[in-house]
Amino acid sequence: MPTSQRDKDFRMLSEAVQAWYRFYEVDPDERASQTLCTAALEFYQEGYKTAEEVSTLLIGTYVGLWSTRVNSPSSATVH
Q1: What backbone phi and psi angles, to 5 degrees, belong to 64?
Q2: Angle 1-48-39 (CA atoms, 0-180°, nearest 5)?
Q3: What local confidence, expressed as pLDDT, does residue 2 receive?
Q4: How confident is the model over 3-43, as pLDDT tens digits?
Q5: Distance CA 48, CA 26 (A)
Q6: What is the dihedral of CA 16, 18, 20, 24, to 10 degrees?
Q7: Backbone φ and ψ of 74, nearest 5°
Q8: What contacts 43, CB < 8 A, 6 or more positions away?
Q9: Distance, CA of 62 to chain centre
Q10: Could you tell me the pTM of the whole model?
Q11: Is the pLDDT assigned to residue 74 strictly greater than 50?
Q12: Residue 47, Cα to own-chain centre: how many angstroms?
């Protein structure tokens, strides 16, 4: 059975979030994952359709684990 587009999109977003964790060399964290997944979905809805695009935006927007906590920037702040 072929993989649906929804499954492919979900996998792509997951890869983008995982790339953020690898880039910052931190272990996955539930709170950070929630923030990053929400942001990844927002970026996707804005038209960024590849793991590379989304991970680049996540890495640039959320600089380290601390930035996923208080007063995290939203995707609207990326120019």
Answers
A1: 85, 165
A2: 95
A3: 57
A4: 699 999 999 999 999 999 999 999 999 999 999 999 999 99
A5: 24
A6: -160
A7: -95, 170
A8: 53, 54, 57, 58, 75
A9: 9
A10: 0.82
A11: yes
A12: 14
